[in-house]
Amino acid sequence: MAHPFLIKEIALQAGLGTATVDRVLNGRAHVREHTRRRVQQAIRELEKQQLTMATSGRKLVVDVIVEAPRRFADEIRDALEHTVPGLHPAIFRPRFLMQETMTTAQVVDALHAIARRGSHGVFLKARDVPEIAQAIAELKQREIPVVTMFTDIPASARIAYAGLDNRVGGATAAYLIGHWLGRRAGNVLVTRSNERFRGEEEREASFRAMLRERYAHLTPIDASGGQGLDAQTEERVRKAIMTGQKGQKIAAVYSMGGGNAAILRALTALNQHPKCFIGHDLDRENVQLLRERAITAILHHDLRQDMRCACQHVMSFHKLLPGSAVSGSSSVMVVTPENIPHDVSARFAARFDAS
C-alpha cells in the first residue's frame, strides 16, 4: 500500500491507533476488513487533501457525520472539499462518516469515539433525538465544537447551525404550489424522509400552516418515511395513494426528503400526473429531472456557502477568526428548468466525463 504519509498521519485521519495502522500497512493478520477499508479511505482522503491544501497554517481535523442518501452525501463532501482550500489561516482535514441510514445508537457511538480520540470539530447531520443531544453535550465538555448541518438539533449544545432556513423553504413551496394550482381544489402529495429530521419537520410544519392560512382548498396527502431511498419512497407513495379515497387525484407534489425519481415512477404507475412538483437540493438526479421537465422547480441552497459557514464557526471557536467575520448560511433559491446555475451543470458534466 504505497503512500507518502507517516503512520501517525494516517492514524489521525482514520481515527485509529498507530499499531493498528502499522498492521494494516504491512499486511499482517488479525485485522478486520472494516479496519483495513478505513485505513485505505484515510490514505485516499490524505492524498486528496495534499493536492488542494496550502503548506502552512494551523491544521484542524474535523469529523463529518452525515445520515443521508448517497446522492446528497456526495454533494456535501464535494462542497466541503471545494471550500477548505480557501479557508486560511486554517488547514481543514475532514474525516468522513456518511451512511444512507444510521441508527441513533450508531450516531451516538460515532460521537463517543470522536470524544475519546479527539477532534477540532464535528459537522453533524443527524436526527433530533435526546440521545444524540446528550452526546453533543459530552463533546462540548471536551471542548469539541459541533455544528449541525441542514437539519438542526436546537436544544443541544451545538455551537451553530449551518444550512437553509427550513421554515422559509416550506412556505415558499406552499406559495408556488398555491400559485400554480390557482383556486382549484386538489390533493398535494407530501413526502419527508424521516419524522425525526428537524429540518424536514420544519419544512412540513411551515408548508401545512401556509396551506391552512391561504390555500385551504388544497389537501395534503402524507407519504413520508422512505428515508429518501428509492425503493422505500416508491412504496410509501404507492400505499398513500392506493389507501386513500377511491379515485383521489394528486394535483401537486412537495418532496422534502428526496427520492424524486422514485416518486415519479410511483405516480406514473398509478396514472397520476400532477400539475407541479417541488423538490429540494440540486443533486445530479434533480438536475436531470429538471432538464427533462419531469419536475417543476427545486428549492436550492448553496451547499458550498453552508459548508464555508460551518468551517468558519469552527475557526472562530479556535480563535482563528473573529465571530463578526463568520458568513451567514445560504438563502432559498427557486430553480426551474430555465435557470439551472451554470456552475452546477458544469460540475455534474465534469463528474460524468471523469466517470
Structure, described:
The protein is an alpha/beta fold and 355 residues long. It has three domains: 1-52, lambda repressor-like DNA-binding domains (434 Repressor (Amino-terminal Domain)); 56-164 and 303-329, 3-Layer(aba) Sandwich (Rossmann fold), CATH 3.40.50; 166-300, Response regulator (Rossmann fold, 3-Layer(aba) Sandwich). Helix content is 47%, strand content 17%. It is built from 13 helices and eleven strands. The chain has helices spanning 7-14, 18-25, 33-52, 70-83, 104-117, 130-141, 166-181, 198-214, 230-242, 260-269, 284-291, 303-317, 342-354; strands spanning 58-67, 90-99, 121-125, 146-149, 160-162, 186-191, 218-222, 250-255, 276-280, 297-300, 333-335. The chain has a six-stranded mixed beta sheet. It has a five-stranded parallel beta sheet with strand order 2-1-3-4-5, sandwiched between helices. Helix 1 packs across helix 3 (33-52), helix 4 packs across helix 12 and helix 5 (104-117) runs parallel beside helix 6. The protein is elongated and about 65 Å long.
